[in-house]
């Protein structure tokens, strides 16, 4: 506790503002537990940049922690690009303080002689990724905590290719940051280097989104969409993109259309949560809509609900949406003729069905660690290959490579194209998905997230993962364990034969069990939230669409049994 108090007292110098010092003094005198939570560590970069609760302290998002990040990044940019007129672009979302924090970040860059393009108002994360290359910038920043609760904010760093920073670059930037003291931050802005941007970049992004996400779908006049931005940034882009692509029957949930970092109408602004889309689904049932689309605050994730076989709206998971989007894109490429250099991609905790699809179409399949930055890195690492599309189970998808991060704007348009076309052809999004199960195998997944907050929660998550590794399952629902994939050691071991193979991905705190029948159970800590996550995938053969309900019920029963066996 002495070291924590000492760290907190270092924030009582004249460098820090009076409000910050007053709050810290109060914590030291009256709330040692809260003081501990705020100063026991420095915020770290995870799978989606840096995210944390807003407030004073080294373990919080505030002008000093983000200022230090920006100072370190400025120093790194100058070392990476010598004798260059450096440029960065900054966007921010709807969260409390995002606009003021974005301004602070811009001021620190400018104080270091770096030219800044700052969006004049909130904009989506995919537009920021697009803007980095469009404006010829050396880096980009977006102030967002994605779908985290209202008390969070965050800081995502993009490089010149429009993708998020990845190793070893992220480590090099972190080393620059760690070498600084807070007093090294240059806060005195050079206003002449800060330029506000808006309509020109908007126009270019909308045009690119329509070009990449539109496929001349039939039946647009007869296709009804209900859209909710969940109080986030997508209201600035998705309605306009849908309009330009020819969709006129779009009903916007007005109660959720106004950007608001408090997210007053939902418990969580996360489209993965069924409750978040409840208002939109209710409206869809009322007006007889064909599809519901909802996005998270920075508009990189999308949730989709469509009519099931009974005609009721059903929320699909990220794997289901990803599979059908990818198949549709593959069909488009196949029609034009594959060139032989195409690939699709997903992450190690997403559905194995993506690999089966790649084999069927004869395209390359690449898999990455969790986090879309790794898919963006593939595009940079393989410049002679053509990225068709890909996604991850956590409701993220990327269409082509004009954006280098998950993109709910273009993915929304793609989903509407698929569904509108299917309806016009006498089918539906849901029926087309079932056809995928018949063709590639019926894979069904379930995600269990356990929240463990604070210092004690971090220790609990660490211990849970140790226990999961040290006490491996012997079988799952009667199917014997076959492989253990340990991404910490980069070794996959066949427990029946002793065979070992090297995992050619960066080391990560992920453990995956695979049984003889292809059931997979993965465990990892979240890189963006105080959670431990368990991903379960199982499968069955579906001979024909008419057997969907019975086989689906069998897989549900099996998933419930797995959860019971694992005490989840």
Automatic annotation (TrEMBL):
Keyword match Magnesium: yes
Enzyme class: isomerase
Domain Alpha-D-phosphohexomutase alpha/beta/alpha: 44-182, 208-305, 317-436
SUPFAM superfamilies for this protein: Phosphoglucomutase, C-terminal domain, Phosphoglucomutase, first 3 domains
Required cofactor(s): Mg(2+)
Keyword list, A-Z: Isomerase, Magnesium, Metal-binding, Phosphoprotein
Enzyme Commission number(s) from the entry: 5.4.2.-
InterPro entries to which the protein is assigned, alphabetical: A-D-PHexomutase_a/b/a-I, A-D-PHexomutase_a/b/a-I/II/III, A-D-PHexomutase_a/b/a-II, A-D-PHexomutase_a/b/a-III, A-D-PHexomutase_C_sf, A-D-PHexomutase_CS, Alpha-D-phosphohexomutase_SF
Top-level taxonomic group: Bacteria
Family listed: Belongs to the phosphohexose mutase family.
Protein name: Phospho-sugar mutase
């Amino acid at each position: 506790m002495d070291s924590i108090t000492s760290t907190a007292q270092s924030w009582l110098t004249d460098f820090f503002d009076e409000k910050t010092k007053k709050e810290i003094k109060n914590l030291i005198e009256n709330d040692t537990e809260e003081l501990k939570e705020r100063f026991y560590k420095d915020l770290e970069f995870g799978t989606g940049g840096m995210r944390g609760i807003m407030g004073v302290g080294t373990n919080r998002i505030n002008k000093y922690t983000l200022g230090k990040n920006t100072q370190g990044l400025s120093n790194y940019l100058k070392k990476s690009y010598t004798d260059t007129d450096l440029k960065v672009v900054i966007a921010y979302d709807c969260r409390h303080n995002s606009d003021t924090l974005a301004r602070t970040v811009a001021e620190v860059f400018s104080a270091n002689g770096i030219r800044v393009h700052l969006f004049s108002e909130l904009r989506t994360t995919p537009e920021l990724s697009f803007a980095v290359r469009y404006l010829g910038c050396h880096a980009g920043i977006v102030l967002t905590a994605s779908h985290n609760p209202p008390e969070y904010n965050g800081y995502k760093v993009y490089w010149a290719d429009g993708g998020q920073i990845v190793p070893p670059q992220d480590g090099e930037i972190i080393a620059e940051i760690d070498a600084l003291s807070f007093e090294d931050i240059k806060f005195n802005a050079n206003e002449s280097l800060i330029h506000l941007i808006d309509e020109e970049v908007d126009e270019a992004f909308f045009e690119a989104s329509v070009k990449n996400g539109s496929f001349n779908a039939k039946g647009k006049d007869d296709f009804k969409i209900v859209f909710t931005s969940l109080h986030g940034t997508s209201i600035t882009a998705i309605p306009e993109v849908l309009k330009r692509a020819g969709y006129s029957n779009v009903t916007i949930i007005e109660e959720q259309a106004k950007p608001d970092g408090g997210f007053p109408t939902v418990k969580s602004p996360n489209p993965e949560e069924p409750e978040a889309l409840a208002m939109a689904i209710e409206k869809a049932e009322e007006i007889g809509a064909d599809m519901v689309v909802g996005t998270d605050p920075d508009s990189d994730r999308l949730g989709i609900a469509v009519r099931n076989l009974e005609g009721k709206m059903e929320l699909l998971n990220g794997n289901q949406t990803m599979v059908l989007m990818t198949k549709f894109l593959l069909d488009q490429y196949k029609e034009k003729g594959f060139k032989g250099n195409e690939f699709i991609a997903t992450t190690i905790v997403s559905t194995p069905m993506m690999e089966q699809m790649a084999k069927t179409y004869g395209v390359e399949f690449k898999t990455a660690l969790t986090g879309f930055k790794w898919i963006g890195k593939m595009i940079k690492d393989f410049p002679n290959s053509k990225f068709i599309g890909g996604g991850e189970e956590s409701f993220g998808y990327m269409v082509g490579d004009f954006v280098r991060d998950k993109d709910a704007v273009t993915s929304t348009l793609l989903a509407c194209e698929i569904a509108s076309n299917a309806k016009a052809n006498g089918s539906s999004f849901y029926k087309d998905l079932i056809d995928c199960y018949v063709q590639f195998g019926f894979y069904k997944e379930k995600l269990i997230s356990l929240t463990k907050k604070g210092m004690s929660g971090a220790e609990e998550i660490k211990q849970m993962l140790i226990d999961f590794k040290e006490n491996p399952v012997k079988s799952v629902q009667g199917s014997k364990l076959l492989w253990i994939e340990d991404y910490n050691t980069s070794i996959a071991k066949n427990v029946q034969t002793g065979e070992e193979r090297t995992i050619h991905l960066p080391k990560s705190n992920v453990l995956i069990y695979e049984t003889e029948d292809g059931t997979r159970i993965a465990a990892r800590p979240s890189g963006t939230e105080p959670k431990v996550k368990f991903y379960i995938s199982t499968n069955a053969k579906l001979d024909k669409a008419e057997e969907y309900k019975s086989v689906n019920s069998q897989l549900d029963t099996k998933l419930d049994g797995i959860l019971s066996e694992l005490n989840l």
